[in-house]
Write a structure and sequence with these properties.
11 strands, D-Maltodextrin-Binding Protein, domain 2, alpha/beta, four-stranded antiparallel β-sheet, about 40% helix, disordered N terminus, ABC-type nitrate/sulfonate/bicarbonate transport system substrate-binding protein, five-stranded mixed β-sheet, 2 domains, signal
Length: about 350
């Protein structure tokens, strides 16, 4: 069953109390690999509307109106949950409304159609969505890759015989989704090393299952994101080959926050509330990495020693180089027509008070 077959039904359920159940079912199908192309969630109606350009602003809520934004309730290291725990939404009229678990590959498609209001996934997914007519915009930079806080790590079994890039030809590599950092950062690096990537079998494995899938021999290399990558670092049978910092110096490691265009137009002050809360939480994590790990450990029920930390872009101010990096990669991969999307089309810092203050 393709996602395009499910979208009309999902939209109908959005108008009824069963919307949350619909999202859970579509997330389950995505996790099982039953959905079609990543961006098929955009309906023809959405694409037609997007093709006409930005819609006129909707009626904006009055100051003081209470507004909830729909957001996935996923077991991961995420600033929305931390901002909520730390009380950064207090004193605002904005609150998250958690709608249940949503499979990673569906977060940007569902943000693009408004089934969820905000989503955090990698830049190439957002670029591809915008190029396909989805109505969304990056409003806050997310995490960044550092040498001691990489976005993702690459593991093999100690007895695999895999020691370098060329050894991966003919092997199976587990990634958390297609169209994102794990696929494109890896392929770019491997091609630079002279590897024929067509000889590698890429399969989708959720991050929290990737270590076990590798250990049991169902994959030959696992690319695992924080916080779950820390558990693989402690696995007796596994060894780490690289991190994404080793591959590109961290340029491909930004995972921003995007908002559905309609929500942005209807609730600009609430978008500002969200971005402000996320930026405060990001700065808190950078200043208190161990305390942040403890909060995440409790949230995802993972032993503290196994929880890898995240580092975040200061004040979550978006810059163009990480976006241009993926535009160039997508064009090189033949996934994006040259010149179709410019970096400035993807993001805005308009709702980030820290960015505005820095320009003052």
């Amino acid at each position: 069953m393709a996602l395009t077959d499910l979208t009309p039904a999902l939209r109908r359920e959005t108008l009824a109390p069963g919307r949350r159940g619909a999202l859970r079912r579509i997330a389950g199908l995505a996790a099982a690999g039953s959905v079609g192309p990543l961006l098929a969630a955009c309906s023809r109606g959405d694409e037609a509307a997007a093709a006409k350009g930005p819609a006129a602003p909707a009626v904006i809520g009055k100051a003081g109106d209470k507004v909830s934004f729909k957001y996935p309730d996923n077991p991961t290291f995420d600033l929305v949950y931390l901002a909520d725990q730390l009380g950064y939404f207090e004193g605002t009229n904005t609150r998250p409304s958690y709608i249940g678990k949503v499979a990673a590959p569906q977060i940007i498609p569902l943000t693009g159609t408004g089934e969820i209001d905000f989503g955090s996934r990698m830049v190439p997914l957002v670029i591809s969505a915008v190029a396909s007519g989805a109505d969304l915009k990056v409003v806050a930079a997310g995490n960044k890759t550092l040498q001691d806080a990489p976005h993702m790590k690459y593991f093999v079994r100690k007895d695999s015989g895999i020691r370098g890039a060329k050894d991966l030809e003919g092997k199976t590599v587990g990634i958390n989704s297609f169209g994102a950092c794990a696929e494109f950062v890896t392929k770019t690096f491997l091609r630079q090393k002279g590897v024929d990537v067509s000889k590698i079998n890429f399969v989708v494995i959720p991050d929290d299952q990737a270590e076990q899938t590798l250990a049991t021999g169902n994959t030959d290399l696992a690319i695992i994101h924080a916080p779950f990558s820390g558990r693989a670092d402690h696995a007796e049978k596994l060894t780490r080959l690289w991190s994404d910092f080793d591959l590109d110096g961290g340029l491909g490691g930004m995972q921003p926050y995007s908002v559905h265009g309609k929500f942005l137009r209807q609730h600009p002050e609430n978008v500002r509330d969200v971005v402000t809360a996320l930026a405060k939480a990001a700065n808190w994590v950078n200043q208190n990495p161990e305390e942040a790990r403890k909060l995440v450990s409790k949230r995802i029920n993972l032993q503290l020693d196994y929880v890898d930390r995240y580092a975040y872009v200061d004040n979550l101010v978006v810059t163009e180089p990480p976006i241009q990096y993926y535009i160039d990669v997508l064009e090189a991969e033949g996934k994006l027509a040259k010149g179709k999307v410019a970096a400035r089309d993807i993001y805005t810092n308009e709702f980030n008070p820290f960015a505005q203050a820095s320009r003052a």
